[in-house]
Design brief:
alpha/beta, seven-stranded parallel beta sheet, 27 helices, about 725 residues, about 40% helix
Length: about 725
């Protein structure tokens, strides 16, 4: 007989009738797929309970003897009912089985056993429907037979029972039977984890761990097995991420050193009207050194809102331009792409703009303009391209793409970033996020990237005060929001008002993906009318405090030229109040804007609220952020808002966000539609384990980069890369 391994197809072990439903329900194909479907919890068959006081509705287990068995026709449905009366000497209980006459041949009068199930009541009689049971063999020659029966009964009742993630078509007991078939057939298991690491970390060998997590005799068995699998998961993930980083560093890339003098970067720096912050200088020096290397840079630049990440990225693009190379900045929305384009042109000034010819490419451009942009890129005449997903399309070709900057990189999938990377020869990659990332998430979701952090804000910022405005509890405060806004408008400042919806019943595309924790909360059916751009514009135009003020709406569904007109009007102070969706969440820079009002703030995630708040307080005037909500005190939605109001530290908020959000959201699997590759590891809970596993994995790769001494791990890593199992993690 062929040896059964973890790679053996399931059908040959559990049969076609079980294998096909397992494939449909859980995408299982091999024995390993099944055995790595771990129990979600463990139950007891129940404490041994006397029959003279059974609690209705509870799970119980009783040792009893069969009194009598009878079968009768059911009155209101087809089929027969088998009724078995049992006793323990203190009372009686009826077991019922529908259309299972064969059980009468097992449950003979006089047989003793352990019976477990949920107590129900029918016509004032207590019963167990379809209970589990195990009969004892009361052999006359067994010494102290009854005592042995009681001991066996106690052991059986205390044995942990695995409860699996299941479906209606594939219930937990069917999964348990399939797992037992697989375990019985499984031969010796090759353990990919080196024995010295197993011993040092107290990890249970793989074969024994599989047995103990599925068929534990005691709680200690499954607990030790689960901790071992959790370490394996963290270790294998970190090993794969570190290996990916190491291999990326071995690839050849064109060095892009800065020109010593007279190049675009030097001239740009000389014309800067302000000093870079210390963090900007450090980040810039790190990136400049990596650009000059003959291997591609893979770096994540994270920082506080308004910390100047875009300036650091622009200086990197100018360094690439020093050697006539091209750079592409990929932004998630047209509004942000257009904002980046205007900001870069303004920062470069007329001379460098004329020399470098930055271009903007979006999906809604007129054909003639798009053709002009594409020609400038393929000819190398334009050395800086800013765009949306349109940059990824097949018709876009670069002469010499040296650097890719991905802004708000969590909005893009691995495949999209790779599509842009393929337009160059191993270009350098700089990913940016304005949402600070907790270290454990960074290690998990971005473990193949080096991380640079900018905490320091440019001098001169006046700071932002943030207040929660509970509309139902404090209606006077809610009314004061609009009066306070009128005062700032009268003083010549500008106001943002952000709504979760475009119009009644129409939300902004991507809002659920941007704040999946909110979408998950609302999945239960929150049907209240949301504040929306269309109605809010009308309300404010009629409001006495806003008479004579130009008020305009902005959302992602508007034509590109209309969006551009509104944004330019707001930037040029022609528009006093901008009522928008989250299209203005990141990157929009209007220093004269002083107040950010967020309506129905409970419909936004923590990072979104922090980003929105960062749109004000960017100039000489202090910022004010007012978070309006009808969420009740004590709810998670209200907790999010209160957390944002309590601190302006994005890194502290990232930790709060990590505590409040669901696992799938943290790793980006909920919004991507993907299934998390993590089974037992929880980023929010197991940070120290992840960090330690990374150290162990790093030490192994340092001593054996090609894993020649650990062929099992080498094969496992190869499979993970081939299957793209790391890709979901990188989408977070």
């Amino acid at each position: 007989m062929t040896r059964v391994t973890l790679d053996t197809p399931l059908v040959g072990v559990v049969g076609d009738r079980t294998a096909k439903p397992l494939e449909r329900a859980f995408d299982m194909h091999t024995v390993g797929d099944l055995l790595y479907h771990f129990p979600r919890r463990y139950s007891r068959r129940g404490e041994l309970t006397p029959l003279n006081g059974l609690p209705v509705g509870e799970q119980i287990a009783v040792v009893a003897q069969v009194l009598d068995v009878r079968e009768r026709q059911m009155q209101r449905r087809n089929g027969k009912l088998l009724e078995v009366r049992i006793t323990d000497g203190t009372g009686t209980l009826t077991l019922t089985f529908f259309n299972q006459a064969w059980r009468g041949r097992e449950l003979l009068p006089g047989k003793r056993g352990l019976f477990a199930g949920k107590v129900s009541e029918y016509r004032s009689q207590l019963q167990l429907q379809h209970p589990e049971y195990e009969l004892f063999d009361n052999r006359d020659d067994a010494p102290g037979g009854d005592q042995l029966d009681e001991a066996a009964a106690k052991a059986w009742s205390e044995t942990p029972v695995p409860i699996y993630p299941a479906t209606a078509q594939m219930p937990t007991w069917t999964l348990q039977r399939a797992v037992e078939l697989a375990l019985d057939a499984l031969g010796a298991v090759d353990d990919p984890l080196p024995s010295d690491i197993r011993e040092a970390e107290g990890v249970v060998p793989l074969g024994r761990a599989l047995e103990h997590i599925h068929r534990p005799q005691h709680d200690a068995d499954w607990r030790a097995a689960r901790e071992s699998f959790r370490f394996r998961e963290a270790f294998e993930l970190q090993l794969a991420l570190l290996d990916r980083r190491r291999r990326a560093g071995l690839e050849a890339s064109t060095p892009r050193p800065a020109a010593t003098q007279g190049g675009p970067l030097a001239r740009f720096d000389a014309a800067l009207p302000f000093e870079l912050t210390g963090d900007q200088r450090l980040a810039g020096a790190t990136i400049a050194a990596e650009l000059a290397e003959p291997h591609p840079m893979h770096r994540l630049l994270q920082g506080e809102v308004g910390s100047g990440k875009t300036l650091v990225a622009l200086r990197a693009m100018l360094q690439v331009a020093d050697g006539d190379g091209q750079s592409a900045l990929l932004a998630p929305t047209e509004v942000l792409a257009a904002q980046h384009y205007r900001s870069i042109v303004d920062s470069l000034g007329p001379e460098l703009t004329e020399e470098l010819r930055p271009v903007l490419l979006t999906g809604r451009m007129p054909a003639a303009e798009r053709k002009r942009v594409l020609l400038s890129l393929v000819s190398g005449a334009s050395r800086i391209a800013i765009g949306t997903h349109a940059l990824l399309s097949e018709g876009v070709t670069f002469l010499d793409l040296g650097l890719i900057v991905v802004d708000e990189q969590h909005r893009f999938g691995v495949e999209q970033r790779e599509a842009l990377r393929q337009k160059g020869t191993q270009p350098h990659v700089l990913a940016m996020t304005a949402t600070p990332i907790p270290r454990t998430v960074a290690l998990t979701a971005f473990g193949d990237l080096e991380v640079t952090t900018i905490r320091e804000l440019p001098p001169g910022r006046q700071g932002i005060e943030t207040f929660t405005v509970p509309e139902l509890e404090m209606p006077n405060r809610a009314a004061r929001v609009w009066a306070r806004s009128g005062e700032d408008l009268a003083a010549g400042r500008q106001i943002y008002v952000v709504c979760p919806a475009i119009a009644p019943g129409e939300v902004e595309d991507g809002q659920a993906e941007a704040a999946p924790e909110v979408a998950a909360e609302q999945a239960g059916g929150d049907t209240r009318r949301l504040a929306n751009v269309e109605e809010t514009v009308g309300e404010l135009r009629r409001h006495p405090a806003f008479q004579g003020v130009v008020i305009e709406g902005l959302h992602g569904g508007m034509p590109s030229d209309e969006k551009d007109r509104v944004m330019r009007g707001f930037a040029n102070r022609e528009i006093g109040v901008l009522v928008a969706t989250t299209v203005i969440e990141v990157g929009v820079n209007v220093p004269n804007a002083s107040i950010m009002i967020v309506r129905d703030a409970d419909r936004f995630g923590i990072s979104q609220l922090h980003q929105l708040r960062g749109r004000v307080g960017r100039g000489e005037h202090a910022g004010l952020c007012l978070l309006m909500t009808t969420a009740e005190a004590g709810t998670i939605a209200r907790e999010r808002i209160e957390a944002v109001a309590a601190t302006s530290d994005g890194f502290a908020l990232a930790e709060v966000d990590l505590e409040l959000r669901r696992e799938g959201d943290i790793l980006g699997t909920a919004q991507s539609g993907g299934r998390s590759t993590l089974r037992l590891l929880r980023v929010a809970e197991h940070g120290p384990l992840i960090a330690h596993a990374r150290e162990v994995a790093g030490a192994l790769l340092d001593s054996d980069p090609e894993l020649q001494g650990s062929p099992g791990l080498a094969a496992l890593i190869a499979r993970e890369h081939e299957a793209g199992l790391l890709d979901n993690l990188a989408k977070s």
